[in-house]
User: Which sequence fits this backbone?
């Protein structure tokens, strides 16, 4: 219901030094909800948290809290508190006085301060540490003190910026359970920032997946994991097999050269789609291979503690990840089955690169801040004159990447890599901030600097807008 919305973020955008880090963000957060902002480094999640706290102002849009505009309200007047990744404790104060610091500034009566500090200490299981020097505490204990200092002020919203990042794995998992219990006991709204997918799935009522300043999907942990909105979410949340597919008809999909039943419908006939199959949802066996939907040979098998993770090379040349309690040794011939409700079909975000271009001169177009030669389609080219606007397309596989930036028409860096079973799908971000999508068999690393080249005959002119 609308009246349970405690925070309403409306059309927020933010840039730093000309680089846009948040792009038209809209988000509603319910009272008492545990919301996690999840995404890779640089996606904008911490910037959004800082704007909620009042430490940064948006370039556009507004932030409402309980229906009131707090966009220009200073941090100290907002009914919320922040727990930082670096706990920012006062080294000259003991544990008790660190927690009581904010209450003393507010001139809360001393008996009320004592009651609230001791209640906060009990909640974070630090009741015997009141007089301890904070520098003598472990990282997990300092983190507890930082949380106690925030909750003692009884905020309506608690903001947490990767508060567990500095802890070891076991301590982090223990603190996740403690945070979840604190949220239940306090009953206030938690807004949590992390890049750890498992942490987000464990803690959250709602996950907001972000990438490059844009919200990719909002949903429950179950929705995000089982029904990802696009290939980025599917790849970022857990392990996935993400493959190209075609929809011949409702409840049917073709991928890895096989036909499968699925539960998805409403796609256009013969529509090209992305297919997601989680590794744990593939049934693998080595007997009765004639009952398999498809077969392959195990390439590797790694014990992961609760399951074995195997890479299987199918007869058609696709590498499929499978997770199973049983281990199958490399070289074993296996059969595999996938149930219809374990296949998730998604619309493709695009089928090829599409650009707006300007005709410059004889067989030359300008787009992506560079001039490119174009061949073929002579009738379309002959009708063009200098300055005419055209729409062009380039297939993913027709974009060539070079190690040396100067060997390409333009340069950029690889910002996203997705393995699709028998090839890689890459996103290259140009120096001008544009995106180019590439299909390749070559292995690249994220952030690699590359040159980009497109053969003249690979550029298709689709639409002309003459002056």
Assistant:
């Amino acid at each position: 219901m609308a009246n349970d919305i405690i925070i309403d973020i409306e059309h927020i955008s933010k840039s730093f030094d000309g680089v846009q880090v948040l792009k038209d963000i809209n988000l509603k957060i319910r009272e008492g909800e545990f919301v996690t902002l999840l995404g890779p480094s640089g996606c904008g999640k911490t910037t959004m948290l800082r704007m909620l706290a009042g430490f940064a102002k948006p370039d556009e849009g507004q932030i409402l809290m309980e229906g009131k505009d707090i966009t220009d309200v200073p941090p100290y007047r907002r009914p919320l508190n922040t727990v930082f990744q670096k706990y920012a404790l006062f080294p000259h104060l003991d544990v008790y006085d660190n927690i009581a610091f904010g209450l003393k500034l507010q001139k809360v009566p001393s008996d009320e301060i004592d009651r609230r500090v001791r209640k906060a200490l009990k909640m974070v299981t630090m009741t015997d540490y009141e007089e301890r020097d904070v520098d003598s505490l472990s990282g997990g204990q300092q983190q507890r003190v930082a949380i106690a200092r925030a909750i003692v002020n009884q905020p309506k919203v608690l903001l947490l910026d990767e508060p567990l990042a500095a802890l070891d794995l076991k301590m982090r998992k223990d603190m996740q359970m403690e945070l979840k219990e604190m949220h239940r006991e306090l009953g206030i709204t938690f807004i949590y920032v992390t890049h750890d997918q498992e942490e987000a799935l464990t803690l959250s009522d709602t996950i907001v997946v972000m990438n490059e300043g844009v919200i990719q999907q909002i949903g429950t942990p179950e929705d995000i994991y089982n029904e990802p909105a696009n290939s980025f979410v599917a790849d970022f949340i857990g392990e996935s097999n993400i493959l190209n597919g075609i929809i011949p008809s409702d409840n049917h999909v073709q991928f890895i050269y096989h036909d499968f039943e699925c539960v998805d419908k409403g796609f256009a006939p013969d529509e090209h789609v992305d297919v997601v199959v989680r590794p744990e949802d593939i049934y693998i066996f080595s007997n009765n291979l004639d009952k398999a939907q498809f077969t392959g040979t195990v390439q590797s098998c790694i014990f992961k503690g609760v399951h074995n993770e195997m890479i299987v090379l199918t007869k058609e040349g696709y590498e499929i990840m499978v997770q199973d309690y049983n281990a199958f040794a490399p070289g074993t011939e296996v059969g595999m089955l996938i149930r219809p409700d374990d296949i998730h079909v998604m619309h493709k975000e695009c089928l090829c690169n599409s650009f707006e271009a300007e005709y410059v001169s004889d067989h030359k177009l300008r787009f992506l801040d560079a001039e490119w030669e174009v061949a073929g389609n002579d009738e379309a080219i002959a009708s063009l004159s200098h300055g005419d606007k055209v729409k062009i397309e380039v297939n993913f596989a027709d974009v060539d990447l070079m190690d040396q930036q100067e060997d390409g028409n333009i340069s950029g860096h690889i910002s996203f890599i997705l393995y699709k079973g028998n090839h890689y799908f890459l996103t290259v971000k140009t120096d001008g901030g544009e995106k180019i999508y590439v299909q390749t068999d070559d292995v690249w690393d994220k952030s690699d600097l590359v040159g980009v080249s497109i053969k003249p005959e690979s550029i298709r002119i689709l639409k002309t807008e003459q002056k």
Summary: The chain has three domains: 2-233, 241-347, 353-465.
